[in-house]
Amino acid sequence: MAMQSDVRPANCPAGATTVAYEGRTRFKGGLIQFSGTATVLIKDGTSNLVIFTAPGTAGVTPLNIPDQGIICQSNLTVTTSAGANVTVFYG
User: What's the whole-model pTM score?
Assistant: First the structure.
């Protein structure tokens, strides 16, 4: 069995596009905090991996990715609308 890598967090603020990690990595999970209707796009470069649309009420949603996560070949990028703050975990 191969050794897994350390998991690191990256904060992605509301209303922004954030490159959480530049280079090949695995998206392991995340935590989305939203204050109302919001959209979060988690991407491998420009290709969408996960699209999350929050309901009209405030809340917090965990993103649980099974096994070893989703591979990102080029980079891990997160785009958030106003009202959504995301912490992604990668490694």
Answer: 0.90
